[in-house]
Amino acid sequence: MAKADRETKKAVALKYDPDKDEAPKVVAKGKGLLAERIIALAQEAGIPIKEDTELVQALFKLELEREIPPELYEAVAVVLAWAWRLNHKL
Q: Which positions ≥6 away from 88 have C-beta within 8 Å?
């Protein structure tokens, strides 16, 4: 999950199952109240939230359920590695 931009309150949720997916997918996105709801649901579920304004802007342009394009692999890999490390510390 990545969130950013408090003024515009955008949020994007990613999902990645290496056994099923070739690349992570955008599974939810929204702005304003919808962004707040996405963030709240992630918090309730214990899903890590990372703020990255530039990445959120890029991911927000993508269609839902589509794999991210190769040009975003590196940026998303950094977020996924962060989330993985965070989950394994807990």
A: none
Which residue's structure tokens are 């099923």? Answer: 20
In total, the chain counts a number of residues equal to 90
Distance of alpha carbon 59 from alpha carbon 5, whole angstroms: 13
> Strand, helix or coil at 44?
helix
The tens digit of pLDDT for each residue in 16-71 reads: 998 999 999 999 999 999 999 999 999 999 888 999 999 999 999 999 999 999 99
List, in order of start, the domains of the chain with CATH numbers.
Answer: 2-89 (3.40.1690.10)
Q: Residue 25's CB: how many other CB atoms inside 10 A?
A: 19
Supply 51's token pair.
Answer: 């703020």
Sign of CA dihedral 28, 33, 36, 40: negative
3: its two tokens? 């969130």
